[in-house]
Amino acid sequence: MRDQGPDDDTEMPSDECQARRRIVVVVDDNQIVRRAVSAELTRAGFQALSYDNGFSVLEFFAMGEPVDALVTDIHMPGSLDGLFVALEARSQRPNLPVVYMSARRAPDAGLVDDARFLSKPCAIGDVSGAVSSALRECYDRAA
Q1: Which candidate among 16, 82, 109, 119 keeps its CA 20 to 30 Å from the CA of 99?
Q2: Which pTM was predicted?
């Protein structure tokens, strides 16, 4: 399920500014983490779309909406974890930058190529920095 919107204290830019912002999809089953990550990304100038489970985000990706990056928790309840979400997203969008997050150590296998991994809890700025870095690397490869 997609969150309805940002927390009340998250400042939203004008429509003109939103049209130019990079879109980052955030997937985490923990509402506090999801909102904190989305707020950080919004403050960094991204448009964050947040989802609480793998099924909902894969439905969104299947609609073909524009997305510039994916930030996903690895361990989520249910049958779709973040590893599968990223793999499926990359099957539809091969150059999509991916940032994984987990309170556990990085898995030995299963991460998509060129992905970033962040240990939770993350310091303020870690997620937006990882997304910015992944986007720059993606654009450098394409150039």
Answers
A1: 16
A2: 0.85
